[in-house]
Amino acid sequence: MKKHKRYLNGRDKQILAFITRYRVGTNELLREHCFDDDTGLRNVDRVLRRLEERKLIRRTELDEGKSYYTMTRRGLGLNDENPRTPKLPTEQTLPVYLAIATYCVENRLKRLTKEKFVEDYPELTRPGKGNGNYTLVEDDGVIKLELLVVDRGGAAHRIRTRVRRLIAQRKGMPHFVALMQAGKFRITVLTATSEQQWKILRRIGNSFDPIEVTAVVIPALKDLLMLRKK
User: How far apart are CA 171 and CA 188, in angstroms?
Assistant: First the structure.
């Protein structure tokens, strides 16, 4: 794979790292995270096209003129001696991936990959449980583990049930329980509208104290839920 690393500059590597971390990337998200503020989308597209021509990333077209990028086996092989062929996002998982990427970019956070989370926090993991949608946030000088949950438009009471289930799944792990009791575990629901945010927060209230449960509006999620592959 050494030959494929040739002529990759720092920005190229940053782009590949972003898409690997979030499983997808768009030209808007990559411009925000990897390019100077005054860079136009045309220049971003030119860089992405070069990486695509080298078969390091794959472009998938959506309706309404949208598209997104994923890693290829060759791209993953730059940092992995035994790369796997990455699974393409489905119509169900794509909005989830992009909503999480958007939230992290907007708040200057980093999603902890499943591999990194298991490596760094084995005491907080359990086989068969999702370990891929965490990030670390600082709140009044306290570092908290944040679990990101994407609302795909369900009723608020269903979101509450989902949150309860996520908490119950972790109550069998003593280190996780200690984290919860110390107020260092937060669940953040990413939703599409202010109205839905209000409904979620009203339904949840303080019922999960000392675990903080909050909701954040990702306006782009409304359109993402409607996108379809060509």
Answer: 18
